[in-house]
């Protein structure tokens, strides 16, 4: 709607008339009645979706774009529409460190889920080691796994709840042209979240 008004104000400008004609069949929603929009996709899908929003008068200058951990790819910052968008994800420095260690051992880049696999294996090893120090059999009970203090993993802190759900300590990141910027660092312990 605003773009049409801008083009109409240019009067007889041929380029403005041409663009105005191309907008003739484009429906917009006018000024949105919301302050944020969640875009829960990443990669090529996000790069296709994000620029389309401006055609429907969803201006990233007026509406905060929000994402998920799928946005944890600094290359997405090349899309101007996404710059300034916020999302929660594991701290990038932890993943970068894990990736370096993985590459040193296996001579290839890990798939993103590799850190979760590592954490699951490390958790089993910690519970086994704890049992070995007491001379008992490993305790893989729900009580042992649902420790309120949680565990430190490759993607930060995590803990299992008695309901079977998991909580993670995530950072709040912002997409910038230069890469990812940490707006709010991930908590280092679950005690921080209680206080």
CATH class of the largest domain: Alpha Beta
Structural class: alpha/beta
According to CATH, the homologous superfamily of the largest domain is: Response regulator
Helical residues, percent: 25-40%
User: Beta-strand level of the residues, as a percent range?
Assistant: 15-25%
Do you know the CATH architecture of the largest domain? 3-Layer(aba) Sandwich
Low-confidence stretches: none
Radius of gyration: 23 Å
Mean pLDDT: 86
What count of domains describes the coordinates? 2
Give the topology string: H per helix, E per strand.
HHEHEEHHHEEEEEH
General shape: elongated
How can the largest sheet be summarized? 5 strands, mixed
Termini separation:
47 Å
Strand order, sheet with most strands: 1-2-3-7-8
- Tell me the number of helical segments per DSSP (H or I, 4 or more residues long): 7
Number of strands: 8
The name of the CATH topology of the largest domain is Rossmann fold
